[in-house]
Amino acid sequence: MFIGAGGRFSTDLDFTGLEEHDHEDIILDMMAAFQDPYHGITFSIPDDSYYETQDGLSWGVNPVYVHDWNTGGDSEVRLQISRRETPTLPTEQHEQCEQSYFRHLPFAPVPITCLVLPEIIAEKIRACYQRHKARDIYDLAIFATRPLDRPLIRRLVVLKLWQARDTFEPERLMSKFRDGTGFDWDDLGQLVRKTHMIDSARITADCIHGLGFLADMAPDEQTLASDQH
Description:
The protein has helices at residues 23-33, 117-130, 134-144, 150-163, 170-179, 185-189, 200-210, 219-225; strands at 13-16, 42-44, 50-52, 58-61, 64-67, 70-76, 79-82, 92-94, 112-114. By secondary structure, the protein is an alpha+beta fold. The strands form 3 sheets. Strands 1-7-4-3 form a 4-stranded mixed beta sheet, with no helix packed on it. A 3-stranded antiparallel beta sheet has the order 2-5-6, with no helix packed on it. A two-stranded antiparallel sheet has the order 8-9. The protein is globular, with a radius of gyration of 20 Å.
């Protein structure tokens, strides 16, 4: 939605649930929509392709599809829907980035309801703080060199980690960036173009330089960042 084809490949489609809903009702609606082939593509939802997490805070479904030159039935689209928290900031309608295949579509691509960019970046920083996927730091580096609403992003990072029952230590994140070895760079190699060289040193340097503002916490942010309860 924000960088289009300039970004890496995403392995699934992530959504945040804005309203109360029953995931089984949505799956049944999807099954009804899939009854007839669409432009020669037949979709279906196998019995073992949907789930709800034990805590009930997220669920997912993986519709499979077949067509004339892909008849194996093992190709799928992975959808994940989170109900863990409501967005902090109001969502916005965002136009999709122009893609080369749009001109072949029999319909006009519609705007999509999205989190605002500062909240997306804050959630990506939280992910980078709590796990070791190189895709997280790769995404952050794209925005770290751009103009950002730094006070808002920092405030959101503190709040989101607190909501996840975690504290925020900016130096811990910077140390993770400086070291760089904790990230699974091999995993990232499967998500970018084969002609694209992954420069881990540049990626980490951009994040160190561009996200240093996270340490400039206001007193109330410092209080919340250290609150373990």
